[in-house]
Specification:
The complex is a heterodimer.
Chain A lengths: L1 H4 L7 E6 L5 E4 L23 H4 L5 E9 L2 E9 L5 E7 L1 H64 L5 H31 L8 E4 H18 L3 E6 L6 E4 L1 H18 L4 E12 L2 E10 L12 H8 L11 H11 L3 E7 L2 E11 L25 E6 L3 H14 L2 E6 L2 H10 L4 E5 L1 E2 L2 E2 H11 L9 E5 L4 H10 L3 E4 L4 H11 L7
Parallel strand pairs in A: 7-9, 13-14, 13-15, 15-18, 18-19
Antiparallel strand pairs in A: 1-2, 1-5, 3-4, 4-5, 6-8, 9-10, 10-12, 11-12, 16-17
Helix pairs in contact in A: 3-4, 3-9, 4-8, 6-8, 10-11
Chain B lengths: L1 E9 L5 H10 L12 E10 L2 E10 L10 H4 L4 E7 L3 H4 L2 H11 L5 E6 L9 H7 L5 E2 L8 H13 L1
Parallel strand pairs in B: 1-3, 1-4, 4-5, 5-6
Antiparallel strand pairs in B: 2-3
Classes of the chains: A alpha/beta, B alpha/beta.
Chain lengths: 505, 160
């Protein structure tokens, strides 16, 4: 034993000699007090299976970091020539305590990252489910809505008596309202997922606000209210921003103001907070001096519902403020609803830019009434659509103009046979036809269609109108994308705008 | 009394120590304390009218089972392979870990356990059973569900 001990130099070491049955023959008791004649298994359950080590061909075993009572030891078992063994216990408690701390931090950090990743995945799954749900839900609604919108619009252009005219107007009004709700849901969904990018265009601020005011003229007249627009004189004449999104914010403010205003005037102010170089912090403020506009997002769901269901607004879906806030966020800005005395200030602070050297001429929005297009030759059109309602809607709308000769295909192979045999001028293709995706189908049309048909314009008519989806359709070769639900005017005007009509006149 | 060595292995943070503590002391702590090296505890179980002394080796968690020193595993009568049902990283390689043990310790029973059923959404245990059909038991060291049954099952496998 003494000879064996001399080969070790460390102080905190205990040497134990045992026989084959684990009976302690000798121990220097440097770490644990032991008695000769006791079994080593009494020290710690680690030694319960000590006999195992006698059953192998090896004679030396090392087990590091064994937690033994209140100590952490490295254990060495060396079989000796007396059919017994020497056990060496090296106390590494302090060393392993430090190692434990390091491992604790490392493992906690790894587990934290894993949990974060998992949460992210759960959130993404929820988001995907929501988007899928919204996609399906909007798809189901869009087809019947397209029919209602288009047919009521068509009907309103025919000879009707007063009673009929009012009924059609009511249908038109409600279907437009439903369209707004649907668009808002989809808009909000895209905004929340960050799939909408702002489009920059430079426009004349005064002309823009005149158009906004003009759009509200009828509604304001009905409410015996007037809209006072004030543009701070120091503001640039033209600004660069996403005109449509800016209008959405203003429209939301005005809709809410009109809904809650009890006075005669609603004010719309455009001011400058500050500017640096060509960057401008723009303050858009809609003020009601009589009538408090609630911040729907800060109300309880019951209060919000009560406010929303007042039923006085023609446009307010209850989502407008959420949408406006998301848009303001995209414009590096914010929205605030400030209630004062009897009224409310709805304020949007938005970051825009403006041309430093002014612009010679900014395109003004024109609302000219277009003459109906009359063509000598009819546009030979394929409607590739497997939904009965949408088929009928598109067909009726196109035929009513007198400019289209339509054929409907709901089966991809019949469509391919048709484009191989006959010449056409236009294809309106649904997002999918009998489960064949439109992009795939277009490539088949280009492949199997006759030479003439390979060059004709193909429009996608679809509910999938996210920027990414539109880009994918364009990249695949579609002339344009027509968004469902559409009105009769939207459908035919898009076609007229994108087609070369000269050859049909 | 017959004595059997059971080694509990698995990824870190899956609840090996909690599982053993629940089995041996019927207690649980929410605090996570990393196990360094090996802790050894003892528990006597009566199975088939026979008292069996179980020597439970609680090993340091690792994602690579081959890192565990062979000396720790020498003389093992049964393995408990533990994963955390809420962390994919802990069960994604479970099959290969089990295969490694089967190849290196032939005829040594292995019980695969999915821990932390208490963290699964309520009412989803049945779904989890389908999803984790390769596991022998789903347990919760926190709530004690199935823990005793799992160790009894392994002990029966060992002494049969």
């Amino acid at each position: 034993m003494e000879n064996f001990k001399s080969s070790y130099e460390i102080n905190s070491i205990q040497f134990i000699e045992i026989d084959q049955n684990g009976i302690i023959l000798d121990s220097d008791n440097k770490i644990f007090p032991l008695n000769n004649g006791d079994t080593v298994a009494d020290l710690h359950p680690f030694f319960d299976n000590i006999s195992t080590y006698f059953e192998t061909n090896e004679s030396r075993f090392e087990l590091t970091c064994v937690n033994m009572n209140d100590r952490v030891c490295d254990v060495e078992i060396v079989l000796n020539d007396k059919n017994g063994a020497f056990i060496v216990l090296k106390d590494g408690t302090d060393h392993y305590a430090r190692q434990q701390q390091v491992a604790q931090k490392r493992n906690e950090s790894i587990i934290f990252t894993e949990v974060l990743e998992l949460r992210n995945r759960v959130l993404k799954d929820q988001e995907d489910f929501k988007n899928q749900f919204i996609g399906n839900f909007s798809h189901e609604l869009r087809n019947p809505l397209t029919l209602i919108s288009s047919f009521s619009s068509l009907l309103s252009k025919t000879e009707l008596n007063l009673n009929q005219s009012q009924l059609v107007q009511a249908i038109n009004y409600q279907s437009n309202k439903l369209r707004t709700v649907l668009d808002d849901i989809i808009d909000l969904s895209f905004l929340k997922t960050g799939s909408i990018e702002l489009k920059s265009e430079t426009f004349d601020l005064t002309a823009f606000l005149e158009t906004v005011k003009l759009n509200y003229s009828t509604l304001l007249k009905d409410k015996s209210t007037s809209l006072e627009v004030q543009i701070a004189p120091n503001l640039p004449k033209a600004i660069t921003a996403d005109k449509r999104r800016l209008e959405q914010i203003i429209v939301n403010f005005l809709d809410s103001a009109i809904l809650h205003n009890t006075g005669e005037i609603i004010e719309l102010h455009f001011k400058e907070n500050q500017r640096r170089a060509n960057k401008l912090s723009l303050r858009v403020e809609v003020i009601t001096r009589n009538g408090v506009v609630p911040d729907l997002e800060s109300l309880s769901s019951e209060e919000a519902l009560r406010t929303f269901t007042k039923g006085e607004s023609n446009k307010n879906t209850g989502l407008g403020l959420s949408i406006a806030r998301e848009i303001a966020g995209l414009m590096d800005g914010s929205i605030r609803i400030k209630n004062v005395a009897e009224g409310t200030h709805q304020i949007a602070n938005l970051k825009v830019t403006f041309p430093l050297h002014g612009i010679e001429e900014v395109t003004k929005t024109e609302k000219s009434k277009k003459e109906p297009v009359k063509l000598t030759d009819k546009i030979r059109t394929i409607i590739a659509e497997d939904n009965d309602v949408t088929q009928m809607t598109a067909m009726k709308v196109l035929v009513s103009t007198g400019n289209f000769d339509t054929q409907v295909y709901s089966d991809p192979s019949a469509l391919l046979a048709a484009v191989e045999k006959h010449d056409y001028d236009l294809i309106l293709m649904s997002g999918s036809l009998s489960q064949v995706d439109a992009i795939e189908l277009l490539s088949l049309v280009k492949q199997f269609g006759n030479e003439h048909n390979q060059k004709i314009p193909v429009f996608a008519v679809t509910v999938h109108t996210s920027p990414a989806a539109i880009a994918a359709y364009r990249k695949a070769g579609f002339k344009d994308v027509i968004k469902k639900p559409y009105t009769d005017d939207e459908l035919v005007n898009t076609i007229y705008k994108k087609m070369k009509l000269k050859k049909f006149k | 009394m017959v004595s059997k060595k059971i080694v509990v292995v698995g990824h870190f943070g899956v609840g090996k120590t909690s599982l053993i503590r629940r089995f041996v002391e019927d207690s649980f702590s929410d605090d996570y304390k990393v196990t360094i090296g090996v802790h050894i505890l003892k528990k006597t179980l009566n199975v088939n009218d026979q008292d069996v002394s179980l020597i439970l080796w609680d090993t340091e968690g690792t994602d690579d089972i081959e890192e565990i020193r062979k000396a720790y595993l020498m003389g093992t009568h049964g393995f408990v392979l533990v994963c955390d049902l809420t962390r994919e990283a802990t069960y994604i390689n479970l099959e290969s870990q089990k295969k490694y043990l089967e190849e290196n310790f032939p005829k040594t029973p292995i019980l695969s356990i999915g821990n932390k059923t208490d963290l699964l959404p309520k009412g989803s245990i049945a779904d989890a059973k389908d999803q984790f059909d390769y596991l022998d038991a789903l347990v919760s060291a926190k709530e004690g569900n199935n823990v005793l049954r799992a160790f009894e099952k392994l002990t029966k496998m060992i002494i049969k």
